[in-house]
Design brief:
The chain has 76 residues and is mainly α. It contains four helices and no strands. The longest helix is centred in the C-terminal third of the chain and has 20 residues. The N and C termini lie far apart (65 Å).
């Protein structure tokens, strides 16, 4: 019986990380952060996935508040 390497049995290598995160989604997140924060590409790519998603979510929340109440305060 052939032996299946552990990295294939578990679906990822021993070093962990996100497997199969869509490249187009990564580009979208990077563009979103770069557009709003003007951060350099290397700084954005150096972020952990969860941190990058958190910053994108925070920007989206700010944008929603601005669109709902353009005359009111940004933070209450």
């Amino acid at each position: 019986m052939p032996v299946v390497p552990a990295r294939l049995r578990g679906g990822r290598g021993a070093d962990g990380g996100i497997v199969g995160y869509p490249l187009d989604r990564l580009h979208e997140e990077v563009a979103y952060l770069a557009y709003h924060f003007h951060w350099p590409l290397d700084d954005i790519l150096a972020l952990e996935h969860a941190d990058r998603r958190r910053w994108a979510d925070e920007i989206a929340a700010i944008n929603r508040r601005l669109n709902e109440e353009p005359e009111g305060p940004l933070w209450s």
